Structures are given as structure tokens and as C-alpha cells.
């Protein structure tokens, strides 16, 4: 069996010595607030409190437009773009625009048969695009 490696400062267990070492560096940075679910350390209690819902599936950030809940504020902010007319992500192959980068990536893969490594966020004039 695997021998657990235990952090003597907070009691968290790790599967490898390397993981314990990496975790130990968070204590030397004076990050006293430790997530009991994953061991991630935070400088401020508020940062830890904002992080915990990512593990507990609490949906404390609610979209005012549709009522959908999210675990983090950043997830909510990304979702709000769905309700916006703003579509800053443009496919350079066909010119379609998307509200989120992941939608552009999915589009390029499914419609054009490939996954661009870095779909652009810049918008080119339509006359500069080639359609194929």
C-alpha cells in the first residue's frame, strides 16, 4: 500500500513526498487558512470562504437574469456574457462570433474539423476573412 505523507503543520495527508513538499511551501508563505478538501492555502479567511463552495457545490452566486446558480463569482461573471450581446470571440475561418472562448473552441472543432490551439479574441474585418 501507499504510505501517506502527513503535513505536521495542518494534518493534511498526501500520496507523495513531492506533493507534501509542494504543500509545505504554502505554510512558509504565511498562508494560515487551509482548505480541508484540497489543502490549498490562502492568506485571508475571506479567500478561503470564497474557495470552499467549489468543493461543496453550493451555488451562492445567482444570475439575476435567469436565476442559475454558480459556486464562484468568476463562474457567474463568465455566465453573464451569455445574456449579453457582446461577443468578443470571433472565428477567423467563418466569422461567427461567440460570447465565450470555449464556445469558439467547440465551434472550430465541430464545424471546421480542428481545434485551434489559440482561438483569437481579436475581431478582423469581414473582408479580411477567407471562407472555405
Give an overview in words.
The structure is a single chain. With about 130 residues, the chain is of the alpha+beta class. Among the domains are: about 45-85, Double Stranded RNA Binding Domain (2-Layer Sandwich); about 90-120, 2-Layer Sandwich (Double Stranded RNA Binding Domain). Helix content is about 35%, strand content about 10%. It has helices spanning about 15-30, 45-50, 55, 75-80, 100-110; strands spanning about 5, 15, 35, 40, 60, 70, 90, 95-100. It has a two-stranded antiparallel ribbon with strand order 1-2. β5 and β6 (about 70) form a beta hairpin. The N and C termini lie far apart (about 55 Å).
Strand-helix topology:
Layout: E1 5-6, E2 13-14, H1 17-28, E3 33-34, E4 41-42, H2 45-51, H3 53-56, E5 61-62, E6 69-70, H4 73-80, E7 89-90, E8 97-98, H5 101-112
Antiparallel strand pairs: 1-2, 3-4, 5-6, 7-8
Amino acid at each position: 500500500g501507499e504510505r501517506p505523507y502527513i503535513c505536521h503543520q495542518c494534518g493534511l495527508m498526501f500520496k507523495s513526498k513531492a506533493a507534501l513538499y509542494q504543500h509545505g511551501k504554502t505554510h512558509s508563505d504565511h498562508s494560515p487558512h487551509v482548505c480541508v478538501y484540497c489543502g490549498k492555502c490562502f492568506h485571508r479567511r475571506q479567500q478561503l470562504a470564497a474557495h470552499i463552495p467549489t468543493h461543496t457545490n453550493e451555488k451562492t452566486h445567482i444570475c439575476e437574469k435567469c436565476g442559475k446558480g454558480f459556486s464562484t463569482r468568476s463562474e457567474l461573471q463568465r455566465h453573464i456574457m451569455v445574456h449579453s450581446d457582446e461577443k468578443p470571440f470571433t472565428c477567423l475561418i467563418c466569422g461567427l462570433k461567440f460570447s465565450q472562448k470555449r464556445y469558439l473552441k467547440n465551434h472550430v472543432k465541430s464545424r471546421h474539423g480542428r481545434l485551434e490551439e489559440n482561438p483569437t479574441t481579436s475581431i478582423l474585418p469581414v473582408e479580411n476573412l477567407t471562407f472555405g
